[in-house]
Design brief:
This protein is mostly helical and about 190 residues long. Helices cover about 70% and strands about 10% of the residues.
Length: about 190
């Protein structure tokens, strides 16, 4: 059975796809960018890199750095590229919305550079479909139970509904942005 790859592993694959990197480079990205939701701890990064290397998804080569230091630079293997693309292009199920919205956004962030604009659009359409179903289900659940909820529970539920609706609106904006970009590109040719 093939080992599962956690979200951190896919974040590492996506970053290495963008540019070969050392463990230190990756730690800096996790500590100084919006990706700080991932641990920049050596105890998280280096074991994850070793697992990816053991799975044949990345390859590390020792290179001379400034001064006398050497560092290991990691690059994606063809298997790593294929695994990253497979992860990015899988359809979004409603269960994915509840499990990890951050992971869906990570997939989207890497989608265009890994699999092209059509993969980004397909991912957005899949997200839109899942969110549309989720919003409908949330509204039905709210209508069935809001009268018996304490005020704090009702307001918390409404927060979840509004957050989901907001994300749905964003997917519509993102899809429109891709359409606008395609029209501009078509008229520039």
């Amino acid at each position: 059975m093939k080992p599962t790859i956690p979200s951190l592993g896919y974040a590492l694959l996506g970053l290495i796809h963008q540019k070969p990197a050392s463990g230190y480079d990756l730690r800096k990205i996790f500590s100084s960018t919006s990706m700080r939701t991932y641990s920049d701890s050596p105890g998280a990064i280096y074991p994850a890199l070793r697992r990816l290397q053991k799975q044949g998804l990345i390859r590390g080569t020792v290179e001379k750095a400034s001064g006398l230091r050497q560092r290991q630079m990691f690059r994606l293997t063809p298997e790593g590229r294929a695994e990253l693309k497979k992860w990015i292009t899988q359809p979004i199920a409603s269960a994915d919305l509840h499990r990890s919205l951050e992971e869906i956004m990570l997939r989207f962030a890497f989608s265009e550079s890994v699999a092209g604009p059509s993969a980004s659009i397909a991912l957005l359409k899949s997200l839109h479909s899942a969110l549309t179903a989720s919003v409908a289900a949330l509204h039905a659940e709210f209508e069935a139970s809001h009268k018996s909820m304490p005020l704090s529970a009702r307001l918390a539920f409404e927060s979840g509904v509004r957050s989901t609706e907001c994300l749905l609106q964003w997917t519509e904006y993102a899809l429109a942005s891709y359409q606008k970009h395609a029209r501009k590109k078509g008229s520039a040719s």
